[in-house]
Amino acid sequence: MPHLYLIAQLAGRTVAIDSDQVESVVDIGEVTQVPLASQHVRGLAALRSRVVTVVDTHTALGLDSSREARRAVITHVEGHHYALLVDALDDVAPFELLPLAGGVALGAAWQRAGRGIVERDGEPILAIDLAALVPGLSAGLN
Amino acid sequence: MDDLIQEFIAETRETLEALSGEIVAWEAQPDDRARLDAIFRFVHTVKGSCGFLDLPRLGRLSHAAEDVLAQVREGLRSPDRLLVNAVLAIVDRIGELVEAIDSGTSLPDQGDELLIGALAEGAAEVAQANIPGLHRAPARSVRLNVDLLDRMMSGMSDMVLARNELARRLRGGDVDPTIEAALERLSLTVGEMRDTVTRTRMQKIDALFSALPRMVRDTAAGLGKSVLLNVEGSDVELDREMIEMMRDPLVHIIRNSIDHGIEAPVERRAAGKRENGRLTVSARQSGNQIIIEISDDGRGIDTEKLIRKLVANGRDEAKLRGLSERAKLELVFEPGLSSKDVVSEVSGRGVGMDIVRASIEQIGGRVDLDSIPGKGLKLAIHVPLTLSIISAIVVGAGGQRFAISRQAIEEIVTDQGEAIRIDTIGGAQVLSVRGRRMPLLNLCEVLGLTRAVHNGPRMISIVNIGEGSYALAADMVLDNEELVIKPASPAVMSTGVYAGQTLPDSGLPMLLLDCAGIAHVAGLDFSRDDDHVEDEAIAEAELGMPALLFIDLDGARRAVPLAAVDRVEQVDGDSVRFAAGRRRVTIDGRILPLAAQGDIAGRARLNVLRLKDGANEVSYAIDEALDIILLPEELVPAREPGPIAGVALIDGEQVELLDILWVFDEHADRESEEHAPLCLIAGDKDGWMASFVRPLLETAGYRVATQLAPGETPAVVLSADEVPIALAPKAPVVRLRNRRAAAGASDDSVYRYDRAGLLSALEARMAGKGR
User: Fold this and answer.
1) CheW-like domain spans which residues (chain B) (predicted)?
2) Within this chain, do residues B315 and B325 fall inside the same structural domain, yes or no?
3) Are residues B240 and B335 in the same domain?
């Protein structure tokens, strides 16, 4: 059963995000810093009248921070809105979710977020769970 | 009261609707405990509300049904068919009566006794006769989905942001005045609209507290006790949903306090306490919670008695005795428990407490108990702060803005103030201000921010977090705003220093600081000076009015009530002139009368107190302002009227108190007429009206008296809020209220700062047009 996925560039990799998790895609404006918060939290941004917590997906995946990223995917997890920064967005298309091939070690951070793969023109793309990148949640990386 | 009755009707009607299923199920299965509890809760709530709303018939019915149901709960009676029918007949009758109240019709009451009689064991069944001719009055309120309201609110905020954006764009270029006018109108409408929309979701906690004084009085009177109620923090605004959910628990707790906690006067005297019990209800925001505290000075919880009672109910004694003190206190929340031997009209059997805890936990809150046997009980309800409007101070630190709840701030000082001293003790900074010493934290350091470069003085807020006070230094204080606070995401909250987030009109999110959390993160520990703080609080409560201490021109130390001082200003010596028959000073482009005791001539600069009483402003020249002090209650009055009202002892020194009334009377620019209408000020307990309203009335051409001379008749009487006018002669009365909003359509009082409204009300009443 094919399902709609958003194909994005994240930390130099191509990833697939379940469209059910995506509320919208926006460019983030000015960000208010949150001192003392974990470094995965870039800060707070206003999305019209809503305040969203901006998540630096690079650090959440254990990579160097991406200061220049502005584009973000808005997702809603446990009653709060988060903006997860992505490098670029490629495509929205229906794909079939396939299990990860046996024996593939994704690396710690990716492992937690990975949910399977989708195949685009023969290229395998890691499907990730956005909620796993949100810090401070039980399933998160905090 | 009408509002409360309407609310009661709506609530009862709703519960009845929800309950109808339970009733049928209970009928089919009378031993179902959950159903029994639901019906029991219903009649208990109705009983509680009835006593308060003065609906004796409903009260009698529900009390009778509650008695029987309690017996069933305790296993003293079995719920046979007759009993079930009798209870249901009463529930039905309650429903009918409520409809009758709503539609304003009356219902013959001879059936009530029959219904109550049918509850007795072995009574014959009564057939419930349907009473025709009842019709529901059309509802005057609508119930909306909270989700819809939320969408409306966020739509509103979007609108405000769009308006701000538009205004910003227009500010730059040359704009047609007509467009500007249109924008102005839009702004005004948007602002008003926002207030209205916010009101649909939020409510001052005052809505919960305003009914308390009456309830406490009636409850106490019914029990032959006397209780002084003190309500604090009633201007916190909360989610309406939350307020509704807290209403019943609060009522239960207060009733329990008065009934079980506070002793009868004789007993109190014997225990060496004041005859009047004290009950304090306060609301404050702390971190991401709202805490409602109910404390009394009664006998506390008798855990021994609780255990005995539970053992009598068949619980294992050894196990109960083995519990920790805290766990023993918690036994008060056990269902079906009575900590009192005599069932009273007021609170029944302590059943409230299990229900109280259940309903508070339902909204994600918790109840803390702190009982000192013989001294009193403090009960704190913690509820999560989902959405609230908080009056906040906006501070700048490290180039960023943060909000601090105003309620937490005692005062704000600068680090260059004269009365301020900052020392470093070991690794900590300590601030001393007027004899108080407290830890000083630097907001930038706590948050790990670099201090913004600027040359001005640092602003230090003195923050009270309940267990103690500390000083928090920020780079600057920017603003004072009402903010809609929402909870922040877990990633932000886990830092422990924020209470929530908000989106001010600037469109840039801002964080609300959690002062208690900051103290915790910085490692401040107040547990050591608990006792000390309590002493100080009592001492402060017993001292009187705050006043400004100064050195007068003639070298005397004098004080003036702080409420009358608008500000202290420095003026050039040559801005003082003797003009038009008196000394006057020019300040801010205005000419003000200048009062002085001493020599002004020859001074290059002059400190001037600007005293304000509403309509009038008078300046008073002084040598130097010294300090803010609390005036003791004991004041030796002056021998004759004049600039000095009396003398008080402050730190062992005699300090003269300036007579504000005399200063205004002598120096304010106004005339008084011989045959002016006489206005009597009644019920002016705190002297507020005499000091502030009087001058306004006098400028408007009234003669004002606080007491009538023999033979005098006032043309109109001005009375304070809710003060019964015992001494009112046959004269029209205008009431002043403390709150801005009227209590309802029938409320004809005038907001006490509404000067124009007051004067027109006085005129209208005197002309006989008013009620």
Assistant:
1) 389-524
2) yes
3) yes
Contact B509 A51 (CB under 8 A): yes
> Are the CB atoms for B220 and B251 separated by under 8 Å?
no
Partners of residue A30 in chain B, C-beta under 8 Å: 508
Whether pLDDT at B273 is above 80: yes
B208–chain A nearest CA distance, Å: 28
Residue B281 makes CB contacts below 8 A (sequence gap 6+) with: B209, B212, B229, B230, B231, B232, B250, B254, B292, B293, B294
Q: Are residues B237 and B317 in the same domain?
A: yes
DSSP state of B692: I
What per-residue confidence (pLDDT) applies to B224?
A: 83
**pLDDT per residue over B74-116, tens digit each?**
777 877 777 777 887 788 888 888 888 887 777 776 677 777 8
Q: Are residues B703 and B761 in the same domain?
A: yes
Contact B486, B495 (CB under 8 A): no
> Does A49 reach chain B within 8 Å, measured CB to CB?
yes
Q: What is the CATH number of the domain that holds B283?
A: 3.30.565.10
Give A53→chain B minimum CA distance, Å. Answer: 7
Contact A36 B495 (CB under 8 A): yes
**pTM strictly above 0.80:** no
Distance CA B402, CA B492 (A): 14
Band (A83; pLDDT cuts 50, 70, 90): very high
Q: For chain A, positions 99-118, list CB contacts with chain B under 8 A.
A: none
Q: Cβ of B449 and A35 within 8 Å?
A: yes
pLDDT at B536: 41
Tell me, yes or no, if A135 comes closer than 8 A to chain B by beta carbon. yes
Total domains in chain B come to 6
Chain B residue with the nearest C-alpha to that of A135: B491
B278-299: average pLDDT: 84
> Cβ separation of B497 and A34 shorter than 8 Å?
no
* Domain hosting residue A99, numbered range: 3-133
Length of chain A: 142
Residue range B529-555, pLDDT digits in tens = 544 444 444 434 444 677 888 888 888
Band of pLDDT at residue B220, cut at 50, 70 and 90? confident
Full domain range(s) for residue B20? 2-117
User: Are B201 and B153 a contacting pair, CB within 8 Å?
Assistant: yes
Instruction: Tell how strand A50-55 and strand A41-47 pair up.
Output: antiparallel
How many independent structural domains does chain A possess? 1
Order of strands across the sheet that contains B409-414:
B409-414, B459-464, B469-474, B436-442, B428-433, B420-425
Give me the total of CB pairs closer than 8 Å, taking one residue from chain A and one from chain B. 90
CATH number at residue A55: 2.40.50.180
Q: Which residues of A touch B157 (CB under 8 A)?
A: 48-49
Mean pLDDT computed over every residue of chain B = 77
> Which chain B residues are within 8 Å of A80, Cβ to Cβ?
487-490
At B304, give phi and psi (nearest 5°): -55, -45
